[in-house]
Amino acid sequence: MGMVKSKQNGMNGQAIDEEGPHNGSAITPSIEQVERTDIYRWRLRDERGCQTWHYLRTDQETEVWPQSIADRYFLGLPLDLPDLPASKTPIDSIQNALSFFSQLQLPPGNWACEYGGPMFLLPGLVCAWYVTQTPIPQPVAIEMKRYLFARQNPDDGGWGLHIEGESTAYGTIMTYVVLRLLGAGEEDKRLIKARGMLHQLGGAVNGPHWAKFWLAVLGVMEWDAVNPVPPELWLVPDWVPFAPWRWWIHMRQVFLPMSYIYSTKFVVPSTPLTRQIREELYTQSYSSVNFASHRNSISSRDNYHPKTFILTILNWLLVYIWFPFLRTESIRKWAEGWTIDLIQREDENTDYANLAPVNSAMNMVACYIYDGPDSYSVRRHRERLPEFLWMKHEGMLVNGTNGVQTWDTSWLVQAVVEAGLAQDPKWIPMLKRALEFLEDQQIRENCKEQDVCYRQQRKGAWAFSTKLQGYTVSDTTSEALKAVLMLQSLPEYPQLVSGERIQDAIDTLLTMQNASGGFASYEPTRGSQYLEILNAAEVFGRIMVEYDYPECSTAVVTALRLFSKYNPSYRKADISKALDGALKYIRKAQRPDGSWYGSWGICFTYAGMFALESLSSVGENYTNNPRVSKACEFLICKQRDDGGWGESYKSCETGIYVQRDSQVVMTSWAIIGLMAAEYPDRRPIERAVRLIMGRQQKNGEWLQEGIEGVFNKSVMISYPNYKFTFTIKALGMFAERYGNSSML
Length: 744
Ligand code: LAN
What we know:
The chain is mainly α. It is built from 26 helices and 8 strands. It has helices at 59-64, 69-74, 90-101, 121-131, 138-150, 169-181, 189-200, 209-218, 249-264, 272-280, 309-326, 329-349, 357-371, 376-384, 405-418, 428-441, 474-488, 499-510, 550-566, 572-589, 604-617, 626-636, 650-654, 664-676, 682-694, 722-738; strands at 42-47, 50-55, 389-392, 395-398, 645-647, 659-663, 709-711, 715-717. Strand 7 and strand 8 (715-717) form a beta hairpin. Helix 15 packs across helix 17 (474-488). The model is unreliable at 1-32 (pLDDT under 50). It binds lanosterol. Lanosterol (LAN) is lined by residues 250, 254, 356, 358, 400-401, 407, 464, 473, 475-476, 521, 540, 551-552, 600, 711-712, 717.
């Protein structure tokens, strides 16, 4: 099955790049004899936010399409930018940062970056390509292997759930298998080591549910070992408390194609390669494994959320009673039919871009099974999947979404406005382009038959990445709206987004509030948190339903307040009620020690910043409010000796603040919160500002430090642009509050 195209392009695989430090992250194990492409031939194309990486084959092509500064930066190549005048004041530092960061703005006006971290995304894509006989271009295969080897744990040979995590069965099994599919040999020393680790973890039978699912599809595990994913759940009436439409959107959109594929028990035809892999994944020969006895086996390293007793019983009933005795052929057909209908709606609503890479890869396989290998749907998925790929100095990875376009662009705009530089002629063209991008990306229509496919109202909203993906997120809509309002209120900027379109955004935001007053991510919460009982994925926490988040709630609070400033009459009573509710929730979510737990950034510094901004927006500050002073004291007591803040991802897993070395991003979050709260002693804030400024490079950039983001409590994800957006915002707020005096 000619998976990896044979060498036909004259690519020499020689190492000629000098790996720059900009994108380097905390752990970069040294690697020997790595096959690589010519890094100078890679280019990023961005068409209205649709980002794809291209490998140019000929010298002529490279001349016609030269590498941009942004390309070179993303690839970790030297930029040869001149040293800027040394900054003394916070505004000097921001000017330098903008001189640098403005050069990374892409033609449509947005910013981009690597959005990696989770290690289970890339395997999904490769499995889908393998199953659907999609040829993987050789440069992609080479660079994916390079990335995966670069991320191999040098001590034990395994891979984790995310790039900074310890090796797990999930990470190790899936990475091992895809390395083999990508052409890495069984006798490769690195794979021998990985196999050792895999066997130490008990072999593939100890993988979590999502690993077993893919292994079964690939035919290197039997379906008997996979816990049930019954599509008939989609048939239960909507009023049933556990009906899937009530689940968190990522869970139900993954469950959807998974349940279809599970029901068909599809297995890709075996090949010599898959037959060989079968013999590599287990601690005994494949034929001697009793797969049915391993449905519930799982390595302790992966068992972050152990299956509940109730779920185990339900699985037993499904396996031993429902499927063999009760499920009729007509029920199966009905369930599969409705499931495929919903899959097609998701594909159509997003033109096959899909919610995120996990469901996208699975939808492609479902289309392959249902529509056949040469169908339009499979071809369109084949065209779209590469939008998740990202190329960096370590090789090629898969991003968490099809980009960070709207999110990061909105933050940059706000940071510059807060620094008082939006009217500086130097930055007007950059911000105008950002505004044009945001205008272009606003979602203008609801989904077709949104109720049938359980979609949230979205007219007027913004999606985290692009309008094409098209899922409103409460905070992305809010941050983008704020960015638009801030710029459009200045005479230098055109009114690109009309008043009516802004009201559409407000209308949609107001549909997203929970009864608690808080805001969740994509939708209001639709089901009870008892649904966590049905969390079958083992490796993640808090995934089954939406929850209220201080981050999302704050974004909405600040957006609604800003909107009311410009338009005090529109839906005045609704807005004021929404604000009261959101603030009530934020106050209630504070922990007894004064902190807030962050769900999307690491962790207490992130949520603390948001919560304090919310409270400050209604005038609650350190001196007039004990809640705020307690929150400040919490942050202050976590400040490190060097003046910075540094929080380990362990905070997210354990719910307890865990220190690590100071990070510019977390330092910025902490002082933004303190400044919003009007913390009375400026000395700790000054020390933090010095740390941030002191770490700025001569060309204006900050170097990548530890990982910044998180989801589902256990998975970390990189937000590399935060080292620009939040530093600029923090320094800008400082200059605005305390004056732009010399700090260094
Ligand atoms: C994201 C990225 C952005 C993030 C914020 C806007 C920062 C947040 O405030 C709300 C939630 C949201 C939109 C979010 C949700 C979950 C995502 C999409 C991700 C963390 C990026 C990747 C992740 C997704 C679930 C990855 C696929 C994994 C599965 C377990 C399905």
